[in-house]
């Protein structure tokens, strides 16, 4: 009896501590975002919580903020090209890695995933030194190349996970029926791994759009990026327009994540 009671107390103590810790983490993660969204509707002229009143004046001002809109367009273009390159390179690398058991394939896997363990700030500085030694001036091209290096691992990881779940009997059946490798890839492999590619492409796009460390080193003076512009605006003056821009980005991110969850099972791919 006493043993059973002690076991129940231990069970409730453990699960109570886990739930308390999870709730604390959730509050710490969600509270700053909620405060930014609330402040963006302020009727005042500065960032203040709680706001003295509520309105949409800063969302209207956002439409006239030319520097923010230009920076957002630059970030969108760079993220688009980065996603395209990451998907092409990451898918090709995943096909080579997943189908081979050689040591070279394992080394290639480690090479593609190494940017995930390297601090982005250190990589940005190293990439800047490399381009300088090669005589290549910083430009949107170097920005796209730098973002691609740090975004490719996401596509590789999700595509390898999709390939590992594919039944090899399907490929053998296609080959035995006389289909060529290219036809088998287009009609069998690609449709089956498409959710993994889409999930990796989405993560790569978001990682590039929100990237600050690499952009700080590899952008030129004429290429203003949205995260850096918002940071500079907050350093110089507490502009409420930045809070409105952040709220719009949060809304767009949530909508895109919901679409990708429905189309590709984003949470399942990230867990894999």
Explain this structure to me?
- Helices cover 79% and strands 0% of the residues.
- With 272 residues, the chain is an all-alpha fold.
- It is globular and about 70 Å long.
- Helix 6 crosses helix 8.
- It has 12 helices and no strands.
Which features does this protein show?
single chain; mainly alpha; 12 helices; 0% strand; 272 residues
Number of extended strands: 0
The ordered string of helix (H) and strand (E) elements is: HHHHHHHHHHHH
Helix residue percentage: over 70%
Strand content: under 5%
Distance between the termini: 43 Å
Radius of gyration: 24 Å
Mean pLDDT: 85
Pick out the low-confidence regions. Answer: none
Write a concise synopsis of the structure shown.
The protein is built from twelve helices and no strands.
Secondary-structure map:
Blueprint: H1 2-39, H2 57-63, H3 66-98, H4 103-113, H5 120-133, H6 140-164, H7 168-176, H8 181-209, H9 213-218, H10 226-236, H11 240-264, H12 266-271
Helix pairs in contact: 1-11, 2-11, 3-4, 3-6, 3-8, 3-10, 6-8, 7-8, 8-11
């Amino acid at each position: 009896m006493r043993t059973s009671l002690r076991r129940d107390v231990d069970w409730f103590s453990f699960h109570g501590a886990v739930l308390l810790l999870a709730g604390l983490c959730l509050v710490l993660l969600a509270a700053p975002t909620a405060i930014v969204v609330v402040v963006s509707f302020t009727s005042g002229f500065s960032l203040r919580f709680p706001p003295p009143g509520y309105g949409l004046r800063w969302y209207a001002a956002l439409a006239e903020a030319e520097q923010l809109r230009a920076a957002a367009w630059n970030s969108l273009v760079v993220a688009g090209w980065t996603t395209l390159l990451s998907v092409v390179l990451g898918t090709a690398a995943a096909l080579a890695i997943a189908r081979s058991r050689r040591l070279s394939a394992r080394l290639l896997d480690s090479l593609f995933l190494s940017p995930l363990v390297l601090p982005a700030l250190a990589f940005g500085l190293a990439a800047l030194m490399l381009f300088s030694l090669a005589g290549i001036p910083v430009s949107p091209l170097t920005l796209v190349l730098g973002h691609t290096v740090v975004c490719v691992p996401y596509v590789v990881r999700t595509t390898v996970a999709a390939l590992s779940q594919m039944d090899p009997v399907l490929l053998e059946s296609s080959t035995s029926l006389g289909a060529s490798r290219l036809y088998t890839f287009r009609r069998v492999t690609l449709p089956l791994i498409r959710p993994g590619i889409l999930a990796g492409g989405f993560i790569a796009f978001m990682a590039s759009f929100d990237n600050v460390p690499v952009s700080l080193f590899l952008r030129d003076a004429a290429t203003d990026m949205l995260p850096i512009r918002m940071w500079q605006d907050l350093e110089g003056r507490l502009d409420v327009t930045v809070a409105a821009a952040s709220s719009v980005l949060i809304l767009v991110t949530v909508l895109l994540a919901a679409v990708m969850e429905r189309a590709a099972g984003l949470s399942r791919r990230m867990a894999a």
